[in-house]
Specification:
Layout lengths: L17 H51 L31 E12 L6 E15 L2 E10 L15 H7 L2 E9 L4
Antiparallel strand pairs: 1-2, 2-3, 3-4
Length: 181
């Protein structure tokens, strides 16, 4: 007594040939690899967007700090964040108001959850320019490298151009500040 019977192979029947199976497996592999590459690309794009947003937030916080500095009632009462190096006293006869001070400091853009250490280290450049005795221009540039650039926290830039050349990605923000009336 037989419990299971295998039907004989019929030419032109309902079975798949080896070629059809190999083509199907090949197509499935190509589609799987394409989908995984698409997910990796989307993940890299999302990470770059998150870091760009963090850089924008760092720049906006610096602008907000300059805008909120109090008291700023006249050209003689200037908050520390808005002062330039030459403002130790009154202007000399030959000195112009078109002077500026640049501050560069490190800023962490993407913080690791485990230890609170920056995964991406950027640099923030804040430039204060005296437009006239009662008007200051605040320029902020946050530069950072992501995937393929150095994230060293050591720096020595001789100019704003050297700073900008050192970073692949940059976020810029500017504003003007006048005395509070």
């Amino acid at each position: 007594m037989k419990l299971f019977r295998i039907p004989p192979a019929i030419p032109g029947g309902n079975a798949f040939t080896l070629i059809e199976v190999l083509i199907s497996v090949g197509l499935l592999a190509i589609i799987s690899v394409s989908i995984s590459h698409a997910f990796l690309f989307l993940n890299r794009t999302a990470a770059r967007s998150r870091i760009g947003t963090a850089a924008l937030i760092a720049a906006q916080q610096e602008i907000d700090e300059a805008m909120a500095a109090r008291p700023y009632t006249s050209a003689s009462n200037i908050p520390q964040i808005l002062r330039v190096q030459s403002e130790g006293g009154a202007l000399d006869a030959g000195e112009s108001w078109a002077n500026s001070t640049t501050v560069i400091r490190p800023v962490g853009l993407m913080i690791g959850a485990a230890k609170g250490t920056p995964l991406v280290q950027g640099m923030l450049l804040r430039k204060i320019t005296v437009v006239n005795p009662n008007l200051r221009q605040v320029d902020v540039v946050v530069g950072y490298n992501f995937r393929g650039g150095s994230n060293s926290s050591t720096y020595s830039y001789t100019s704003q151009t050297a700073f900008e050349a050192a970073y692949r990605y940059q976020v810029r923000s500017s504003t003007f500040r006048s005395p509070d009336e």
